[in-house]
Amino acid sequence: MSRPPKPPCKTANWPAYDQALKRRGSMTVRFDHSMQWEAMPSGRRGRQQAYSDAAIQACLTHKVLLCLPIRQTTGVVASLLELCSLGWAVPDFSTLSRPLPDPLCQIPANEEIAKVTADGAYDTRACHDAIAARGAAAFGHSLGPMAFMPSLRPAGMPGP
Which InterPro entries match (predicted)? Predict the structure, then answer.
């Protein structure tokens, strides 16, 4: 059996091509040294929150961008903080697993929201009401057509 002929090489400048591939894979991560990483005391009774919401969001952003499980995300964030020479502790698995309080409240009320994408954890009547109140469209695994959750389907929307 004969081999198919090799396609002709169209790249004339291999060093530039190699550098372009390296730049395509590069990533710059910056942490603001003035960022409040540890949570401020809430003044309530009971155990205080250890990390600020911004710290948890920073970790979860890396999780989404790098498509990592939570436990691997803690390792990546720990490495990044060490590279940045920041003495901050990394939130643990259970801290990152907790849902953040009402993500729509973090966006100023006068700022327009075009659409909201979320997973099933936010597929509740309260979430849909908050999204509708802000005039945004809901998209996502379960926020889209809402065909599989008839109890959460808006009045008048046809079922499956």
Answer: Tnp_DDE_dom
